[in-house]
């Protein structure tokens, strides 16, 4: 973790390679997860949505699907009209699921969730889920049984990946804390007039410790003595087993923390338009407002005498690199990949399988749609948080992009 002026930057390395990169500026924190008491300003039947005043510059956008019961099994067979559920002047509690961006207001929902260290608490969802990244079926069943035992009435619980192997006492402590938090939200909602902020999501430092650190983490480095005590306190509360892995980095001359671990050079490369591959090939990465397009090229790689084998090896390396860079750059929305043409269907199937395998490692929902009729690969990746510095032209000293371009995930 590197403190750069008023920005906190966090990098996650695996086997020396940058796999995730987060940044958040003071005063530009994400609103995702915040809970507000709002007032409906107007209802749009043609869009099946409503605009809600939550006290920000732009009214928030609420889709009809986000007004229905959070458990799909409990939703009506025939979707009602938005005018049946919302009316101008109506007050309601909502939670931000997507930050305001480029003049658009935030997106909000009534499907509430509060994240803890081991699980996600959903006060009205009425079901128990288990992270798909937990593959052991016996462990999945154990966690599902515990979730049913811990929840009350119509509460919902999703067991996070970090819950694997944890005992009931740890999971129960998360449920109790989050249940009490939600009760305080409801009490504030009853007292305050709309629009009003009822709950603020944790800042980047707390989210990283809560969501990213697992027993697999070998070391946790931070280079700011003033932030170090806060990190130590959060670790002791959220992940006491990792306390002894926290290290304070002391600068040596011009060598900083991110330079020592090659974060700066890797980030600059990862956020470039042209990204080199180890075998001599390269990617061309273009991001537009509508979608992201990635072009794979063989470059200097000549491979073997077999053209199909050369192309396949290049595409396979590209698939692994692209999956990693989607996380580093925190790409959201539609992604189109133009792999080098392969003649054999078996080769195409293997590239698709590798992309699906890599997507399972992504903590953000990433759906591999597959090959299009034009031979392009299509995928979608969910993204909620946008840059808190979209108005700034200042250059990020780590990745070299302007902060206006720099998307980040907190």
Please tell me about this protein's structure.
- The chain has helices spanning 82-85, 137-150, 168-191, 204-211, 228-238, 257-260, 263-270, 307-328, 345-359; strands at 2-4, 7-14, 17-25, 35-44, 49-53, 60-63, 91-98, 107-109, 114-115, 119-122, 128-130, 156-159, 196-199, 220-222, 246-248, 274-276, 282-287, 291-297, 333-338, 366-371, 377-381.
- The chain is α+β, with helices and mostly antiparallel strands and 410 residues long.
- It has 4 domains: 2-28 and 203-260, no CATH class; 35-109, Beta Barrel (OB fold (Dihydrolipoamide Acetyltransferase, E2P)); 114-198, no CATH class; 271-381.
- The strands form 5 sheets. Strands 4, 5, 6, 7, 8 and 13 form a 6-stranded antiparallel β-sheet that branches. A 6-stranded mixed β-sheet has the order 16-17-18-19-21-20, with helices on one face.
- Helix 4 packs parallel to helix 5.
- 35% of the residues are buried.
- The model is unreliable at 387-395 and 402-410 (pLDDT under 50).
- Measured between the Cα atoms of the first and last residue, the distance is 13 Å
Q: Could you describe the largest sheet, including whether it forms a barrel?
A: 6 strands, antiparallel
Shape: globular
Output the number of helix runs: 9
Number of extended strands: 21
Q: Proportion of β residues?
A: 25-35%
Q: How big is the Rg?
A: 23 Å
Counted up, domains total 4
- List SSEs in N-to-C order: EEEEEEHEEEEEHEHEHEHEHHEEEHEHEE
Helix content: 25-40%
Structural class: alpha+beta
- Sequence stretches where pLDDT stays below 50 over 5 or more residues: 387-395, 402-410
Integer average pLDDT: 87
Cofactor: Mg(2+)
Pfam families: RNase_E_G
GO biological process, one term: rRNA processing
Domain S1 motif: 33-117
